[in-house]
Structures are given as structure tokens and as C-alpha cells.
Amino acid sequence: MPALLILWVRSSVKETDQWQKRKDSDVADKMGSFQDLLLNKRWMGRAIGGVLLAAVGLGTFWSVTVASQDLVRERLIGQGISSEQAASSAKFAYGLIQALGGGIGLVAFGPLCSRLGRKTTFIAFHVLSMIIVPITCYVPQTYAQLLCILPLYGFFTLGIHAGYAVYFPELFPTHLRATGTSFCFNGGRLVAVPVLLYSGGLKTADLAWGITMLSWLFALGIIVMLFLPETKGKELPE
Fold first, then answer.
1. Is pLDDT at 16 greater than 80 in this prediction?
2. Of 164, 227, 172, which is closest to residue 37 (Cα–Cα)?
3. How far apart are CA 141 and CA 176, in angstroms?
4. Residue 20 domain-assigned (yes or no)
5. Is residue 189 scored above 90 in pLDDT?
6. pLDDT at 28 over 70
7. Residue 208: pLDDT above 80?
8. What is the rounded CA–CA span in Å between residue 144 and residue 124?
9. Is there a domain that residue 141 lies in?
10. Which of 1, 38, 110, 182 is the most exposed place for a label (fewest CB within 10 A)?
11. Which long-range CB contacts under 8 A does 140-143 form with residues at least 24 apart?
């Protein structure tokens, strides 16, 4: 079914007139050029910033967002719940309750970007993620309390991922838009790899402390956004 959907999208979605004009112009040889993306000072800074921003989101997704399931299971086992019941309850907490909050965050990020601006929304989500993570790790004392706070945990730590689809295409000109967007997101995957390798050892001794320390990665996202441009209400670059 996904493959059939892709075929429908490919046949139904047409390229914009702007893109077609660029393709037919004298800059056609630069369409999708990594050389132009990485050696042109104007686009290089945006590309590197985008990679770092994506790396923060992708690194924290696996080391912070998904780790809440382990946090809930460990908390329940510590309260005397059997491993089987704790695992089942943790899956429910993560797979339904937190995922619901995360889904709302993903849907809300776009409208918030339109209202507040891209930079403000990204910075706010990163700041609030840094706040909600230690609260989730240390404040709730019961399973019910965890269920109450996990939607906010998911809303902020997962919601930022919708912003990449909004923001990255706006950073680059027509002839580099797809290449720049792909470079930012997939480059972020590679940069995030050391975080995944390191996070396991960091969380071995004390899971709550490890997750809290890893949440400081959101601070990097805040710093990166300070150096990237605001694109709300502006013409796409050419």
C-alpha cells in the first residue's frame, strides 16, 4: 500500500512553475549540486546548522523520547510490580499515552510556526523539553502521575520533528531545496550516531540521571537556532 501511494503521489503532484523555469535556465547544471550547497558560503552555513538541528532531534528521540518506556518500567519494578506487568504497563504508557501527546505536538508545531515564527517555536520546544524531561524523571511518584505527565513529555520532545519539514525547505533556493533538506535530515542521522552509542552507557548506572543529562542536548538546538535565519513571512531564497 505505501508503494502504491508513492506511485500515486509521483503521478499526481506536479513540479512548480518556478522549479521548472530553473531547470530550463542556465543554472540547470547546479540543480541539486552538493558543490554549490557546501561551497557557497550562503548555503553552507544553513546546511551545517540544519544538520546540527536535526542531529539534536534524532539523537534525543532515541536517547530521551523512547527512553521513557524504560523509565516507566524501571519505576514500576522498583515499586514491586512484576517484570511482565511492568513491561506491559510501560508499553501502554509509551505507545499510547505519550504517543498521543507526541502526535498532538507534531500536528501543533506547524500552526505554532505560522503564528510565532520558526525560530521562536523551535527554541520554545527545546527549552520546554529541557524542563519537562527532569520533571518526568524525578517528580512523579506513582504510575498514574507518570501517565498524567507523559503526554507533555511526548508533546515537546517529539513535536520538534515536524518542524524539520517546515523549516529546512525554506532555508535553500529552488535548485537546492530538495538536496539541502535531505542533506540536513540525513546528515543529522549520521551526526547523531555517537549520541546513540554513548547514551547506553550513560543510562546504565542511573536511568533517570542519564536521561536528564542527555536532555541537555536540547541546549545545542537552542544555540543552533540563534545562528539560523527566521523564515516566517519571507520570500523563499533564490
1. no
2. 172
3. 50
4. no
5. yes
6. no
7. yes
8. 27
9. yes
10. 1
11. 140/75, 143/72, 143/75, 143/76, 143/79, 143/89, 143/93
Are the beta carbons of 153 and 133 closer than 8 angstroms? yes
- Give the C-alpha separation, 32 to 216, whole Å: 34
Instruction: Check: pTM over 0.90? Answer yes or no.
Output: no
Angle (deg, nearest 10), helices 118-138 and 207-214: 170
Q: Is residue 184 very low, low, confident or very high in pLDDT (cuts 50, 70, 90)?
A: very high
Single-letter residue type at 196: L
Please check the confidence at residue 146 and state whether its pLDDT lies above 70.
Answer: yes
Q: Quote the pLDDT of residue 29.
A: 62
CB 81 within 8 A of CB 64: no
User: Locate cell 513491561: which residue?
Assistant: 87
All three cell numbers of 85, joined, read 506487568
Domain-embedded: residue 207:
yes
The domain spanning residue 78 has which CATH number? 1.20.1250.20
Please say if the pLDDT value at position 229 is more than 70: yes
The answer to the question of residue 9 being in a domain is no
Q: Are 175 and 22 in contact (CB under 8 A)?
A: yes
Please tell me the distance from the alpha carbon of residue 157 to that of residue 57, in angstroms, as a whole number.
Answer: 8
Q: Which three cell numbers stand for residue 42?
A: 550562503
Q: Which residues lie below 8 Å from residue 95, measured CB to CB, with a gap of 6+?
A: 69
Average pLDDT, the chain: 92
Domain count within the chain: 1
Residue 191: domain span: 40-225
For residues 107 and 154, the answer to whether their CB atoms sit within 8 Å is no
Calculate what percentage of the chain has a pLDDT beyond 70.
Answer: 97
